[in-house]
Each structure stands twice: as structure tokens, then as C-alpha cells.
């Protein structure tokens, strides 16, 4: 989806939002945080696509094309730790056991189970060392302060994630903001069926220390942006709860790569992630009476690039690593469901 297409799409949806009919049946959408409230979310994702890998240490580069499919299931535990006078909630999130079923076109099948708290991983039942950065949350929750309209006012990353992102040009706070920028902000006023509102955000990264002094370029390049349009389509009963059905159409763009450095007993690597583009469309189901989200269902199409360079440590001695992986039109379908009692 080009920037011109995205711009045209938003011009259309904004005009539709301005022309919605003055329906007497309007609803005010607000989060109603309650101190001590606990909730469990179940996240299910299905992904299919093709990854093209090039080994740039070979001349000419050796190319491998791999079709893959995977399903991922993970529970996320949410706790409201505090609520201030303005109704802003301090929310903590802790991931549970992550299960991944992964299959490649060559017949390779893997069942992967990761425990973020115990920091363990098994592949097809056998204990396996966890690759660096695969479980940055660990036993420490991530926290956000969220307004009744859904705006993220403050955020605090786990220390392990700070260490992971802090090794590259992306600061911990910026990295966390990137992940949370897609959280839907609710309209200021009561709305009726057909009402459309939009949301945009831009995250800038910092040049790694020393680069700016060495003429490394713009100290605040703008590599990441998010834009979405939301429309109240009507009301639908989900798991016995009447919810506002909100259609979501949007796009995420990271126009420049950011780098992460990783050093382990097996290798010293620099990973450049990006540029990348994600188009998304789906629905959010919000319970106005309880003031909470009940379900989201989203389809995404992803294009991304990753370049890994460095040195692997082998019994035969150091071995150079220079690999580039690209994915085009990787498709993901994700359903996030509140586990109701």
C-alpha cells in the first residue's frame, strides 16, 4: 500500500465521518478502570508467508526461499494497580506460557514452548537454549498509565527489554511507544453508528552515542509512523456481552532500519531490522457498560527486511556471518479475546 493510496483512503474515511447522520442513539466509549481488577487475555495468531534468505558471504550470494506457516497462543495477564482522580489507570501486563507450532515447506515441524517467567524453552519436547532477545519480558511485567479514552500517558518497560533495545539506536521508551502506539484512542464525545475518527502517531529514534559527533547523520530520524481510521459499525453480542463493533483500517511504516547488537557464547552479531510496512484491517469489540475491550480480530499483511552481520564462534574458529532475510506479503490473522468468567 503506497503512501498515496493511504492518503486517499483517509480522505475518504474522514469525509464519511463528517457526514454521519445525527442519530439520537449515541454512546460514550470510555475505559472504566477499577483498582485490583484482574483480567486474562488469550492471544491467538496464525501466520503464513514466504521468507527469502541470502547468504552474502558466498559469491554469488546463495539464496534460499522458504514457505512457512505458524500458529501462536499466549495468555496475557492484566492487573489494574492504581486509579487516580482523573480515572487514569496504572496497568501491568505479564505474559504467560507461549506456544508456537511452526512448519516449513521442506517438512520441518516444530512445537515450541517458551516460559517467560522461568526463562526456559523446549522444541519438540527437548530443552533448548533461548536465543538472545526471544523473551525480553521475563518475570517482570510491563506497565502503562492509560487514560479513560485509551491514551497511553506513561510507560515502563521491563529491565530485560531496556537492555535489549538499549544496545541499538532505538531507546527503550521509544521502542515501547512503538508497540503501544497502535492502542486505539476513543472519541471525545458520544458517537452514533457510522461515525469515523482517525489516529496518527510518529516515533523518532536517537542516533547511537558518538555517531552524531562523527557526522553520522540526522540525530532524530523519523523511522516509524502509524495511521488508522476507526468507524462505529453498530453493536454485536460477543460472549453474551453487547459490544460496540468498531472497524479498524490502518498502516504501520518503519522507513529506516534500527540496529540491535547481540553478543553470546555462540556469536557476536549486529541485527538491522527494517524497513518494514504493515497494513491492517479488522474489528474491535468494546463493552460500553463495563468500560473495557472484549475482543479484537485483525488481519495484517507484512513486508519486512532483516540484515544480520557479525561473527559466529565455531569449533573450527571464527566464521563470518552476513545474512539478509526479506518477507513479502506475510499474512497474519490475530484474535485477542478477554477470558470472561
Please sum up the structure shown.
The chain has 341 residues and is mostly beta strands.
Structure description:
- The chain has one domain.
- It is built from 3 helices and 16 strands.
- 10% of the residues lie in helices and 55% in strands.
- It has a 16-stranded antiparallel beta sheet that branches.
- The radius of gyration is 22 Å and the shape is globular.
- A hairpin with a 2-residue loop joins strand 15 and strand 16 (317-338).
- The chain has 341 residues and is mainly beta.
- The longest helix has 16 residues, at 3-18.
List strands and helices in order, with pairings.
Blueprint: H1 3-18, E1 38-55, E2 62-83, E3 89-95, E4 98-104, E5 109-115, E6 120-123, E7 126-127, E8 142-146, E9 152-156, H2 159-166, H3 172-180, E10 196-203, E11 224-238, E12 241-254, E13 258-263, E14 267-287, E15 292-314, E16 317-338
Antiparallel strand pairs: 1-2, 1-16, 2-3, 2-4, 3-8, 4-5, 5-6, 6-7, 8-9, 10-11, 11-12, 12-14, 13-14, 14-15, 15-16
String of helices and strands: HEEEEEEEEEHHEEEEEEE
Mean pLDDT: 80
Level of helix content?
under 10%
Total strand count, please?
A: 16
Find the structural class using helix and strand composition. Answer: mainly beta
Poorly predicted spans? 1-23, 163-181, 206-222
Strand content: over 45%
Largest sheet descriptor: 16 strands, antiparallel
Radius of gyration: 22 Å
Shape designation: globular
Quickly count the helices: 3
How many domains make up the coordinates? 1
* Terminal CA distance: 41 Å
